[in-house]
Amino acid sequence: MNKTKKRFTEAYLGIYGLWLLAFVVAPLLLLLIQSLNVPGQGFSLANYRDFFTSGPYLAMTVNSIWYAFLITVMTLAIAYPLALCLTKLKHRQFWLLLVILPTWINLLLKTYAFIGLLGKDGLLNRALEGIGFGSSQLLFTNGAFLLVAAYIELPFMVLPIYNALLDIDPLLPAASRDLGASSWETLKKVIWPLSMPGVKTGVQTVFIPSLSLFMITRLIGGNKVITLGTAIEEHFLVTQNWSFGSTIGVVLIIAMALTMALTNDKQKKKRGGRK
Amino acid sequence: MKVIERFWLSFCFFLLYAPILFLVVYSFNQGETMQTFDGFSWQHYQELWADTRLLQIVLNTILLALLSSLIATVIGTIGALAIFRTQRKLLKQSLLSLNNVLLVSPDVIIGAAFLILMTALGLKMGFLTVLMAHVAFSIPIVVLMVLPKLQEMNQDLALAASDLGAKPTEVLTKVTLPVISSGIFAGFFMALTYSLDDFAVTFFVTGNGFSTLAVEVYSRARQGVSLEINALSTLMLFLAFVLVLAYYAYSQKKQGQKTKLKEKVK
Amino acid sequence: MAAEKILEFKQVALSFGETEVLKNIDLSLDSGQFYTLLGPSGSGKSTILKLISGQLQPSSGQVIFDGQVINDLPAERRRVNTVFQNYSLFPNMNVYDNVAFGPRLKKMSEATIEEKVKEMLGLVKLSGYENREINELSGGQQQRVAIARALANDPELLLLDEPLSALDYKLRKVLQTELRTIQRRLGITFVFVTHDQEEALAMSDWIFVMNDGVIQQQGSPEDIYDEPVNHFVADFIGESNIVPGIMKEDYLVHFVGKDFDNRDAGMRPNEAVEVVLRPEDLDLTTPEAGKLVVTIKNQSFRGDYYEIMAQDDDLNLWQVQATNPAEIGSRVGLTFDPEDIHIMRYNESEEDFDARLEAYEDDETPTDPSDSADKVPEVFDHE
């Protein structure tokens, strides 16, 4: 590399490094400091002690993870077969665009649609009445929250899986069939393992935002489902207890980092084992 | 195609579009609720047209998205170049990890962290703080779209350019940037999507004077249903649909050209 | 030909950390010649090219171009252009814009540029392809554009880094001839890198055979083929039968248990040497008439000849090229002429080799386009 090029590289690094420091490192560091800076007590671990000894908060943590998990499983169950069907279509690019299209409508508008659909006199309730079920409160339930969250996240699960499926050499499934595997065996033993990278990306892109869909909880779930996301929002914007809000934030970050590290390790071990 | 595949496709597309169509249908409702359809009318569109506050917010949202994506694309491309050119493995890996931090962080945390940062900087919450936050969460995605293009690029191209007498700036503007332009455009559009779709981060760092569509819909929805929102959704859906069709037609045409060329070479 | 020195390497070495890629290379190129750097991959031949083009800087020594040391001159300011192995055409430009890239950077007028592009495309037989996109071209056409693009910059020296290796056999042959024609027409110095000895022999005025970061031997194609300086060169260039022998006295060599007259001299009496016999110099005959008696082990048809593997009674394998097939398992005789025997001394440097040849061969020492007095001896290391 000659000198001018080196100088350019240094300039790029400078600009980008500065951005990383100011907008990635600084905010997260401030969040950490804020979580330790308890009003009236100075720096202490009091917030963390409170968090980990409080039943409601621990339950909320478990709840958040449980709901995020459910949302992820639901979207995966719908998205995987959908992606598989899409890859077999003639104008698959067009159909894929139709799957992506709803993501261009702001998620608040989509949530808003469900207020109408699920409302007491909403379409769904009346349809249920029509088949003979009694009218029931659908809005402001846990089920409603799960449904809307899964609906919003669905395209984000389809996309990476679809791409991973397209990346599979079409000769591989053909080879599997040639060697005597049935379509089901081919799917299980060839296509599914090969599409794992896409599934993994999909799971990550759905699981993480699912932890923080506080607006859906507020609009659809009522305040019955309190997730960590809702709690953070409440501490920051309602009760103005930034310190405790930051503590929950830090806990959330650490929990997430752990989950990701664990899933990554498992993947590596599996790969190593297969060799 | 098997029956079961057909069924699943229909079912999924019904799921995806039912809520949206529901919004569209009720935008033409003569009544004021999303419960009973009282007959066809344009009245909610007229209300929308008269609601200058909402139109202003739509305009704000679009402007914010364009501006933040533009800035994010510039910095993100520089970032991708920085990561790509860095030789030391450890530094490269740390840069990439830091880049991905915002990408994998939940929105609430980004929002909260930025609220603390902006307050610490003594900024008044408003357009500027929202813009900065949007730029910040868009940059990582731009980096991730541009970086693979740099890695795919035939590295000898830059060598060939300087071999032919191009100075480093000329290599960048005449060869490198044009070759990775598809990644840069993809990054820009992803940034645009992120910005338009964001609610949580904006909600944290916005102030009294500035609002985006998502924040506005949130506050209106908490007060109850207004079919004006349906009318707006319908218009936006229509616009998105037209864009998708245009994009599809364009990409098909391009693909057609390519396959024709391949046949010619054979 | 008035040979004017255009490029010189003085004790040029390059290492990356512990690995020595080039070990004190000395070479000198005259203008207007077609040079080839020939060697297996990893031998350092492409590294020399990168040092000339400016992609790499030497760790020590001097790269001298037109009398000036250019060690640190950036690539864009060298009057040298490269044709890359993978073509490296700019995919965002069409054929015309690719060829016009260099002239445009020089801020030539568009009329001059157009003339230049037309001329260059004519030279590589691609007239009329100006508006084609790069991905519309076949590999051979892309390589022609790459050549035109490099030549459009009026280089004094054109570097070609295995430019034909990705092409099929026939196309490679055609382009070999065309490149040679272009080089003769323009009178520019070409430095061609290849691992294909056939290609090197067919195209070059002068060949540098490289291995392990060292120039093993240099000379005209004929010299290198007929008088390989060591085992590596004999083995790498063409097919060879190499057996150990003893040089009993001048013009008398002993191998496979017999004495043979030959045409080499200048060794110590009874010096251990290696004996080279090319397969095409061996002829099959009856066992009685043969200088060696061998058993045919197997043979394969190669189109214009049969390649026969035979074994003598000492279990040495002999490769023979014959026009007629032989019978496997039969015993036959091998004959060859005294001048077909080539003797190689162990660890003889090219300098000593040349000196020895000159001492007993009063006639026709091959003419060397570079001044042979400039050559610095190189130490050979067979370990």
From TrEMBL, chain A:
TM spans (from-to): 12-33, 65-87, 94-118, 138-162, 202-221, 241-262
Compartmental location: Cell membrane
SUPFAM superfamilies cross-referenced by the UniProt entry: MetI-like (SSF161098)
Domain of life: Bacteria
Membrane topology: Multi-pass membrane protein
UniProtKB keywords: Cell membrane, Membrane, Transmembrane, Transmembrane helix, Transport
Domain ABC transmembrane type-1: 61-263
Major location category of this protein: membrane
UniProt xrefs under Pfam families: BPD_transp_1
Gene3D superfamilies (UniProt xref): MetI-like
Family: Belongs to the binding-protein-dependent transport system permease family. CysTW subfamily.
Entry protein name: ABC transporter permease
Automatic annotation (TrEMBL), chain B:
One of the Pfam families matching this protein, by short name: BPD_transp_1
Keyword Phosphoprotein part of the UniProt annotation: no
Protein name per its UniProtKB record: ABC transporter permease
Protein keywords: Cell membrane, Membrane, Transmembrane, Transmembrane helix, Transport
ABC transmembrane type-1 domain ranges (all copies): 58-247
Membrane-spanning segments: 7-28, 57-84, 96-121, 127-147, 175-196, 229-250
Protein's cellular compartments: Cell membrane
PROSITE patterns with a match to the protein in the record: ABC_TM1
Family statement: Belongs to the binding-protein-dependent transport system permease family. CysTW subfamily.
Keyword NADP: no
Species name: Fructobacillus papyriferae
Membrane topology (UniProt): Multi-pass membrane protein
Source domain of life: Bacteria
Automatic annotation (TrEMBL), chain C:
Entry annotated with the keyword Ion transport: no
Region (Disordered): 357-383
Organism superkingdom: Bacteria
Domain ABC transporter: 7-237
A Pfam family matched in the record: ABC_tran
A GO MF term: ATP binding
Coiled coil: none
UniProt entry keywords in alphabetical sequence: ATP-binding, Nucleotide-binding, Translocase, Transport
Biased composition (Basic and acidic residues): 372-383
The protein, known as: ABC transporter ATP-binding protein
Organism: Fructobacillus papyriferae
